[in-house]
Request: fold
Amino acid sequence: MSDKLTKDKLDLLKEKARALRRHIIEMIGRASSGHPGGSLSAVEILTALYFHVMHHDPSKPHLPERDRFILSKGHAAPVLYGALAEAGYFSTSYLKTLRQIGSSLQGHPDMLSLPGIEMSTGSLGQGLSVGVGMALGLRLDKIGAHVFVLIGDGESQEGQIWEAAMAAAHYKLEKLVCILDQNKLQIDGHVENIKGIEPIVDKWKAFRWNVIGKINGHDLKAVIGALETAKTHKGSPTIIIADTTKGKGVSFMEGNKDFHGKAPNKEEIQQALQELM
Reply:
């Protein structure tokens, strides 16, 4: 269970978020491969989940009562790896092996090779469906754990997202919480120019979900407040619409689609790390 969000705890969480951003830049830079933009946009969301909201134990990664997290937008694996390492699932020194042959830190998460990964993701649109299945299974087993699923706005163009949304509402999966990382960019450009998803709040309401937001997805207090509210909601699944910036925290990556899946070069790594001091 989460503890009280004091000023000291909030300050610690902000430092944790900064550490995650540095990990993202360092590991992708070292690998010369990866997806920095969508990893950076989700930092506060994963910081709030792994270091304040979720019930989990790195020493017991298969604990039946644990809360589950699914990174449906699997290309943002670096932010998940950073959170797992900082939480104690494995050493932070292992982050330097991202995308190397033989490393468990593959380009997309692999649940069979790394503790703490609940689902192997990569092909977009599938995570929410698995989250529905997990929430149903937990209900059958009479386990009160929550299932959190992070999806992207480009990913929301996938029809499977909406099939899962319909099923979750039908079964009244109140322990299922979806977070939309709405950073407004996908690999080919602006989401609104490729296949617009607005009015996104009205869409989820029409699918009979409890909708929270839009919130500032980089305001830790707002993110934690939304997640805590979602955990107490009864009768339906909840989605949190988080308004975020792709590449958040690194000036030349912010709002820049070119860094959806491009690693920074040596000079860019140095500049980014300097900004994240």
Q: What stands out?
A: The two ends are 31 Å apart (CA to CA). The CA atoms of residues 64 and 141 lie 10 Å apart. The longest strand covers residues 176-182.
